[in-house]
Amino acid sequence: MAIQFYLTNAGKAAVLDAENMGLSIALSHIGVGTAKYNPQTASSNTALVAELEQYPLNGGSVEPVSRTLRFISNIEPTVTADCFEIGLFTSAGILFAVASTIGDSPLMRLVADIVCIATFGMKVEGINVENLVLQLDPHAPVSVALMNQHLAHSNPHPQYPLSTQLANVIWHVGSWHGTDSTQYDPSIALRPLFGYDTSWMLLPHIPYGVEDVNQPVGAITGISTGSAIKAFTTRIWKRLRDGTSAPAYSLTADKAVVDEGGKITFKLTTSGLDVGTPVDWSITGIQEDDISPSALSGQFIVDAAGKASYTVDVVEDNKTEGTEFLKFALTYIPNKQVSVLIVDTSKYPEGVITYYEGIHEIEILPNQTVQFHLHGAMGGGGGSIWSGSSASANGMDGAEVSCTIDTSILTAGGGKAGTGGVWGNGSSYHNGQPGKGGLPVVVDAASLFEQIEETAGIDAITYDRWTTQKGANALPSILGQMPGGGDGAAGIGDERWSYGGAAGSGARVRAIFTNLSSQRVTAKIAVGKFGEGWKSWGNAGTDGGIGFAIVETYNDNIDEVAPPVPVLSMKNIAPITDPAPEDKVTVSGTILTNGIAMPYEVKVKVGATEVSAVVGTEQNSDNSYNWSAVINVGGLTQNTLVKAQGNAKHLIYPDLISEFSNAVQKTLAVTITPEPESGTGTE
Q1: Residues 6+ apart with CB under 8 A from 493
Q2: What SS3 state is found at 189?
Q3: pLDDT of 374 strictly over 80
Q4: How far is the CA of 510 from the CAs of 272, 398, 409, 525, in angstroms?
Q5: pLDDT exceeds 80 at position 680
Q6: Under a CB-based contact definition with an 8 Å cutoff, are residues 412 and 477 in contact?
Q7: Which residues pair with 119 in a beta bridge?
Q8: pLDDT of residue 469
C-alpha cells in the first residue's frame, strides 16, 4: 500500500515561523498509532490519535528541485500491533505531517522484537523546503549509514553524467524569460507545462549578458541598439525555487506637494533583494530643466537593510508654467509609482497662501478680512484584476478639507473613488463603476461667514471600454486648473472588459470672514489626503488630485504700532544706617502705559546688581500699575543710586513689546557709624 503523508497546519506554521527568524526546522522521528481516520481532514491534528511508539530517523534527504522529502527509520518495536496512522515529528515534538487510513489494511504491521528498516517519501508543497533539515540518530545501523553516504554524495551515479548535465542546462535555460508584455506572467503561462504555479520574480533592472553557459545564470546575449530582439529586454522574469516569495517593494515620497525651490526625497524599501541590487526608476510629467540633478531616469542601489533613497531639487525658474505632476516610478516593477504636485510659485497672487495635507492654524488680526477657498481631495481610480481574490480593486475616496472658527465649520467633501473591475475568464466579469463628486457642508450657527458659495464636485462618468476611464475634472481654483479624479484602469480581460471605474472630484466651498473683535481669532484648517488609485496587482488605477485650502487676505496692511514707552515713578527710599550683610530694602513705584498696553517688565538696578520687580495686575485710579522689588543692601558703605526701567506689551498685538523707558532713579542714603577712637593713657 502506498503511504501518503499530508502536511499539518502546525507543521506549516512551524516552517513559516522558522523562516521569519532565519532558522531551520529539524525533522527527527516518526510515531505510529492504531487510530483510523481520513488524513486529508486531519490537518488540524497536533498529535497522533492513539500513539503506540516513536522511532528516530536514521537517514534521508531533502530534494529542493523535486520538492521531495525522503526519510528512513530503523523500526525496533516492543509491541505487536497493526498501525493505521504514522506521524512525522520535529525535534520540538510538533506533528509535521500525518499519514493514515480508514480501511482495514494497516499501513504497517509491528511484531515485537522484529527489526525492520522503513523508507518513506513525501511530496512537500506550499512551504520552502530549503528550511527543512533531517536530524539523524547517530546510532544508525551500518546499512542505513551506507545509504546516507550514497544520498549525500554529489554524484552517486557517475555512470549517468548526461542526465546531470542536462538537468543543469534545463534549469539554466528555463530560469529566465524576456517579454515586452505588461500582462505576461510566467507562472500562469507555464502552468499547463508544470501542472502547478511555479515561482518567479520580475527583475528590477536589465542585467548585462554573459558570453557562455559557464558564466552565472542570467544569459542575455545579442542585445544592442537596433537589435531585432531589443523589445524582449523590457521585462525580465527570473525563476525562483518553488514556494519562494517574490521580492516586495514599497515606494514613497516625503511630500505630496512641493513649491518651486523645494526638495523631494523618494524612498525605496524592499524585502527579498540582495544588497547591491540595482532598481531602475524613471521620472515623467516634467522636463529635465525642472529638477536638479536633471536626470529623468536612474537606479536605486539597495543597501543591507533593503533600502535606498534619491533626492531632487525643484528648480525655481520664474516661468509661468502652471502646476505640474512629477511621477516617479519603478521602471520594471508594475504599479509602483508616486506623484508629487509641483506648484508654480510664479502664479501666486499677492496676499495668497495655500495649505496642503495636514492640520494648520492661522491667526486673523482684528479688523482683518480673509476669504477661504476649500477644495476637497479627489478620489482614486479603480483597478482591474482577475477573479479568484477576495479583495476588491476599488480606489480610495478623497478626504475632505475643512475650516473651523469657533463653532462654525466649512467642509469641502472629497471625491468618491472608482470601483474595481473583475475578469472571470469570460464566463463572468463586471466593470468598475465611476465615483461621485464630493459634497459641500456648511455649519455656521454663529453667522461668522458671509458670501458663502457651495459647489459640489463633478461625478465621473463611464467611457467606451477602448478609451481611458477619465477621472472627473477638478473644480476651477484661483491658482488655475488642478488635477482631477483618478483614472480607472484599462480592462484586464478580453477586449478590455472589466475596466476600473474613474473617480469623482472634490467639492469647493468659498466664504469670507472678517474679524470684528479686538482680539486675534484662530482658524483651524484640516486638509485630508488624496484618494489613491488601486495598485496592488492587476491593472492599476491612478491617484486622484490633492485637496488644498487657499487663504486670501484683503487688508493685510493694518498698522501694528508698538505700544508707547511707559512712564515710571519711584517712591523715596528711607535711609539706612550700618547695613548688615543680610539686610534688604523694598523699592516700589508705579508704571503707566497709557491704556493701549499692559506692563510687561520692570527692572531695578542697584549698583551692578539687577532684579526684576513684581508688577501688580490691578489698575490704579490713574490707570497705572504698582510695582515693587526687594533689593539686598548688605555691604553698602556709601550713598547709592537705585534705577528702574520698564516696558509694555501691546493689548491687541501681543508680539509687539515697547522699548525700555528712560531710567527713573532715587538715591539710597547710607550712613556708616564711625567706630570710637581708642583712649590715651597717662602715667
Answers
A1: 384, 421, 423, 425, 426, 429
A2: helix
A3: yes
A4: 50, 19, 12, 13
A5: no
A6: no
A7: 72
A8: 96
Looking at residue 11, its amino acid is G
The long-range contacts involving 298-303, CB below 8 angstroms and separated by at least 24 positions, are: 299/205, 300/268, 301/276, 301/277, 302/268, 302/270, 302/273, 302/274, 302/275, 302/276, 302/277, 302/278, 303/275
| Residues 433-472 pLDDT 10s | 999 999 999 998 778 999 999 999 999 999 999 999 999 9
Query: Are the CB atoms for 543 and 382 separated by under 8 Å?
Result: no
Taking each continuous run of H as one helix and of E as one strand, the counts in the chain are: 5, 45
CA-angle at 398, arms to 393 and 402, nearest 5°: 160
| Sheet strands (E) in 502-653 | 508-514, 521-527, 548-553, 567-570, 576-577, 584-592, 597-606, 609-612, 614-619, 625-632, 640-650
Give the other-Cβ count within 10 Å of 252's Cβ. Answer: 12
* Domains, the chain, with CATH or none: 6-152 (no CATH), 162-240 (no CATH), 348-558 (no CATH), 567-671 (2.60.40.650)
- Antiparallel, parallel or unpaired: β 609-612 and 597-606: antiparallel
Which position has the grid cell 534521508? 60
Q: Which of 127, 156, 146, 136 is nearest to 64 (CA)?
A: 127
pTM (predicted TM-score): 0.51
Could you tell me if 524 and 361 are in contact, meaning their C-beta atoms sit under 8 angstroms apart?
yes
Q: How far is CA 165 from the centre of its chain?
A: 47
